[in-house]
Amino acid sequence: MLADRAMAHASPLEVDAKQPARQPEGRFLLLGLLALLIFGPLAFGAVEPWAVVIQELGAATLAAFWFSSSRRKLPASCVPLLWPWAALAGVVALQILLHAAVYIHGTIAAGLQAATYFLIFLVAAGTLAGPENRKTFGRTLAIFGTLLAFWSVLQGFASPTKLYGLRATRAGGIVYGPYVNHSHYAGLMEMLAPFALVLAFRKNLSRQERIQWGLAGLLMAASIFLSESRGGMVAFAAEFVVFAIILIQQHNKNRAATALVAAMAFFTIFIFWMGAGELEARLATFRHPGVSIHTRFQIAQDTLQMWRSHPWLGFGLGNFTRAYPQFRSFYTDELVNAAHNDYLQFLSELGILGFGAILWFLLAVLGRGLRNVHDWSSSSSHSARLAALLGVVGIAVHSLTDFNLQIPANAALFFALCAVASSDIEDTPSSRSGRSLPALPAHIALALYAVFCLQLFVAAHFSRSSSASRLRLATRLDPLNSAAWMKLGHLEYFLEQQPALAAQDLHRAVTLDPLQALAWLELASVEQGLGHHDLQIAALHRAYAADPTTPTYLLAEANSYFSAGEPSLAFRRLRDVSTHHRDSLAPALDLAWRASRDPDLILREVTGGDPQAQMALLRFLSALGEEQPAGRVWRALQQNGVAFDPALAVPYVQLLLDNHRADEALAAWQILTARPGMAGYQISQNLLANAGFEADILNSGLDWHYRPRPSVSVNVSTESPHGGQRALCLSFDGPVSDTGLSHYLALPSPSTFELRGFYRATDLRGAGGLAWSLRDLASDADVTLRDDGMLEHSSDWRPFRAGFSTAQQSVLLLSLKRIPAGDILRGQLCLDDLSLTKK
Fold it and tell me: How many whole angstroms separate alpha carbon 174 and alpha carbon 191?
């Protein structure tokens, strides 16, 4: 009946007539398919070029063998699923032929990968239709998943930052198992774990086998949770719910419920025994390293905006990374290489037409799979079909928050599972009829496909070279690859000094890929060297249109505009950076200062009324020692009356002190310390700030300074202070010349001053002791201190006093020195309740 219905909708691929149960060719196809599917995860998810081409050539080889065999007939249940594939192929063809794809090469490369998945689906559908092959397939994946989960859990504890415990990743990420991204490992296990778990609930299974498969499934499921992928946890929970519903509907409800509760209890105990602390910490936060929940929502909204601009055919399969920057609503130098939602990414890349084909295929697979779940526990073959369906459900759910279908290893396994899940119970050698498929045209197409894949791989390999001759070979092998043309143009301009040839090749690059901002920037640089001002400005405009939110590119554009004599355009780009990306404020201000050296212009054109940007400019100029420009920024901050963090302006006070501006430093300090949070640093009659050490040491301005010195350590102690809550203690253990403790004194008028305080020298051992010293920073001369002598051993708090006079406005440095310098000193000295007053 099913076969007759399928024949009524016959496609060029017809259903088959007979299939011997155990032919050598069938065994070869099964083993080859399993080897290809297992290779992908072990090869880091098959994301690297060498792994991709092996997957492509492997799929082509299996498909060629399948077309040559007597088994080159598809089961009836698979034929209707070819129509969505045909629709998708048609959409991709239209994108290429109508130039709807913004980068043709990217769409061709992604189309070749899609063809690989189709071949795997085709071979899986034909090879795994028989119950014996399906049984072997399911059990092999269950065993592989168990072994990989066991190794991954061990690696997670022993060497969590390296692949296989050996290879460090270049771009960071949360490594788990053989995957750089823990969520992709979780996606793999979502597809493998059901094969063991479903087997554990099968009928007519011995208790020992049930326990073995159950433990295997629980280990795989536990590794999902230990990988700390929240999307993986939700997806596995969805699989469990679907399985629970099927189990309860088809079995004794009480027994099924008891079994499920027992499994969940055991699973929970197992999880928290293996990694409770890390798991609890992971579940307690909604952040992902580099990609917060808020950022994911922003990417999702931006991706919808992409789709609205190209609703029917999208930007081209595989072109999300190229097209996304012009729609990105936030500024970052990080590459957003995926939408973190497979559905939205396919919608933006393929438009309504292509996305409809994908939904058509997915719903058809789920519909057929759910209709065939009856009698799943009667055999391992039927159990494998249900397990495959659960794996498809898991990825379908996980794709809402991640991009497993952009990972070749996971995508290949997913489509193989689609073939198994959609197969009918009647898909056996005795229940199928049809005619053989023409092998010659298929072999020709597969040969061309394999040659093309290999050619692109070789070209990509040469395009990563730094040799001009190899890059030229890459452009001949793959003339549509803009990356090779761009790199060649770069070498021709900077190394071979051939600007005209470089401009020609860079024009080729931007023609092929008009959304590559870096290529436009390279072209602008070359046009500047050629003296083509208008072409340089046009290239910079195109770079901004392609990517208006990457700070590194905006800074490069601003630099190029300055060199082209277009400061207004340059400042506009720097204003974008200043407003939207705080991490790039420093290079933006540095470029603006080098180009203009006008703080008023920078305040007006770059920082605007943004107090954080203005404060960054003040700190920048203070660090450069530019006193007058920094003073103008400081006065602008005061005139604007904007709120800012006063601690950030302390370096300006330090600049004034270093330039011996006692009056100005003291006035600025009083303004800062009058602001909220700075009361502990105020100076009044006592000219020492933070004299009782009740506030944290700022290590700048008119607060205490400490510079690390050998054999000296410092800490703020709350144990038995003289007054207040805290005292400052220095510990000594070896030769000491200078304690590293000092305090700047801004003395605006000549007078006589008295320094007082209390000290406690616990078990202070060594010749001599410690004494205060004063140095006039303007004359670099010592100031005479009339004191009570050195600070020596005293187990109780003891007062000290010293006096000195100044003849003019002064900036002095008060320091605590070792007398005699360089001698060994051991023990501890604590200071508290210091004061400096006029007599």
Answer: 20
Query: Can you give the length of the chain in residues?
Result: 839
First to last CA, the chain: 111
Compute the mean pLDDT over every residue in the chain, rounded to the nearest whole number: 89
State residue 72's pLDDT score: 64
SS (H, E, C) 801-832: EEEEEECCCEEEEEEEEEECCCCEEEEEEEEE
Considering the chain, what percentage of its residues have pLDDT values greater than 70? 90
pLDDT band at 591 (very low <50, low <70, confident <90, very high): very high
Residue 837 phi, psi dihedral angles, 5° rounding: -130, 155
- The residue-averaged pLDDT of 816-834 equals 93
Tens-place pLDDT, residues 241-250: 899 888 888 7
Contact of 422 with 77, CB cutoff 8 Å = yes
Q: For the purposes of burial, counting CB atoms within 10 Å of the CB of 137, is it exposed (0-12), middle (13-18) or buried (19 or more)? A: buried
CA nearest neighbour of 666 among 681, 647, 648: 681
Which residues touch 516 (CB under 8 Å, ≥6 apart)?
A: 322, 482, 486, 509, 510, 546
pLDDT recorded at residue 382? 87
Express each pLDDT in 148-187 by its tens digit.
999 999 998 888 888 887 787 776 678 899 999 999 999 9
Can you tell me which residue has the tokens 């230990």? 226
Strands (E), 582-711: 704-706
d(CA 559, CA 566): 10
Tell me how far apart the alpha carbons of residues 45 and 413 are, in angstroms, rounded to a whole number.
11
Count of alpha carbons within 13 Å of 414, Cβ hemisphere only?
Answer: 28
Measured over the CA atoms of residue 97, residue 100, residue 106 and residue 111, the dihedral's sign is negative
Whole-number Cα distances in Å, 220 to 163, 257, 570: 18, 22, 55
Give SS3 for 91. helix
Q: What angle do CA 392, 398, 399 make, to 5 degrees?
A: 90
Cα distance between residue 673 and residue 647, in whole Å: 9
Residue in the block written with tokens 């009829």:
433
Q: What is the pLDDT, as a whole number, of residue 75?
A: 79
> Do residues 227 and 182 make contact, with C-beta atoms less than 8 angstroms apart?
yes
Q: In this predicted structure, what is the pLDDT of residue 425?
A: 61
Q: What pLDDT sits at residue 12? A: 36
Contact 29, 123 (CB under 8 A): yes
Closest among 170, 88, 85 to 346, alpha carbons compared: 88
Alpha carbon distance 117, 833 (integer Å): 76
Between strands 786-787 and 794-806, the pairing is: antiparallel
